[in-house]
Structure formats: structure tokens, C-alpha cells
Design brief:
Layout (H helix, E strand, L loop, with lengths): L8 E5 L5 E10 L5 E5 L14 E4 L3 E6 L17 E4 L5 E10 L4 E6 L13 E4 L3 E5 L20 H5 L1
Antiparallel strand pairs: 1-2, 1-5, 2-3, 2-7, 3-4, 6-7, 6-10, 7-8, 8-9
Length: about 160
């Protein structure tokens, strides 16, 4: 499965008004996708490239697709929760995020497993996916059911049948 990305689309942050083209699309394990927006240079500073702004996808308004060439990505090599090792440094961790870039690169963020509660939290480290070796595929996860949680509501036909 390849995640649907918005690379090459014109976009506007509905909160700050930042406008530009999507040059990166990040997918996180905890389901909070973000996009990297590259604003255009301003008329008064045509030779200064503005910094890319990373913004939560849910506050973005996407426009038309630009004329930029956008690569076709193959299906993901790694899934969230897979345990991988960087072949160059030996760094080991779990896949916590995947980012697609308009250049065709795919980067994977590994976060180390914490074995001791006293251990200091370490942020994830990003690697090109080609550098990673799969150590252990993700485990089957039990999906939590939210049935019966929250305030009053009508039960679905499926819940009634159970």
C-alpha cells in the first residue's frame, strides 16, 4: 500500500495563511500527517528562498496540482512498528514515521525502544529507507474497539447483532 500524498499540490495553511507548494509529506505512527510547504520567493527578495514550513495536514487547504514533476512511489518497504537497523551506523529502532519528498527520496524515522522507565527519552532519527535493514517485522496489533465508550448514542446494526 502506498499512502496518498499531496506532493506538488498548491496549498495554504488555513490558520497562518502561509501559501506554497507541498514538497514533503510526513506520515506518523500516531496518525498525525504533516506537509512541508515551500513558499515562493517574494518580489522584494527574489534571491532568498523562504524556509519550508511543516504544517499539520488537517489545517491545510489544497489547491490544484502544480506542473512540477512528482515521482511515482512504490509500495512501502517498512510499516509502522517494524524494528530496523541503519546499515551505516548500527542505530536500531522502530519505524515511527515515513516521509516522502518531491525529489523522490523516502526517509524513515526510527525511535529506539525504551527498556527502562528511568531511561531518558530519545527523539527519533531520520534515515534514507535504502540504508535500513529489517530486523523484526511489526507484531500483529489488537485494534481497540470504541463501542460503548462515550456518551449516549444509537448502536449500529452490527453492534446490535453481536
Amino acid at each position: 500500500m502506498t499512502r496518498e500524498h499531496k506532493l506538488g499540490y498548491e496549498a495554504e495553511d488555513t490558520i497562518s495563511g502561509v501559501k506554497g507548494v507541498v514538497t514533503a509529506h510526513y506520515f506518523m505512527w500516531y496518525n498525525s500527517p504533516r506537509v512541508g510547504i515551500q513558499p515562493k520567493a517574494t518580489k522584494d527578495k527574489p534571491n532568498e528562498v523562504p524556509d519550508v514550513q511543516e504544517i499539520d495536514e488537517h489545517v491545510m487547504k489544497f489547491g490544484k496540482k502544480s506542473d512540477l514533476k512528482v515521482p511515482q512511489f512504490a509500495a512501502e518497504i517498512y510499516e509502522f512498528g517494524d524494528e530496523c537497523t541503519d546499515s551505516v551506523t548500527g542505530y536500531k529502532g522502530q519505524v515511527a514515521a515515513i516521509c516522502y519528498y518531491i525529489s523522490g527520496c523516502v526517509h524513515v524515522c526510527l525511535t529506539p525502544k525504551h527498556t527502562d522507565k528511568k531511561e531518558k527519552f530519545q527523539a527519533g532519527v531520520w534515515f534514507a529507507q535504502e540504508r535500513l535493514d529489517l530486523v523484526k517485522p511489526k507484531k500483529k496489533r489488537k485494534v481497540q474497539s470504541f463501542a460503548g465508550i462515550g456518551g449516549p448514542r444509537e448502536s449500529s446494526a452490527k453492534e446490535k447483532a453481536i
